[in-house]
Design goal:
The protein is mostly helical. The chain is 90% helix and 0% strand. Helix 1 packs across helix 3, helix 1 packs across helix 4 and helix 3 runs antiparallel to helix 4. The N and C termini lie far apart (48 Å).
Amino acid sequence: PVVNIIAFNIPFFYLFHKMMHYDIASNILTREEAKQIGYFNKNEMRLKSLALYILSLIPFTVFFTAVFFVIYLGHTYFEKAEALRARA
């Protein structure tokens, strides 16, 4: 079990996190906004990605919840972008 966590889940979580956030942020934000949101909210985004990744480990749930993942993270990025643009 320990080898499984280290050898499989950590690299797959890293790829899941990076690909989901890159895909969603690149469609919603400018490059500078994405960098600022990523820098100031990185722990919050990691926790949200971790929760979604753990949910995706349950068999067959990813078939029904993949769209929810995108909506959930997209909504988060819209909220952060709105707050960021209001400050500027």
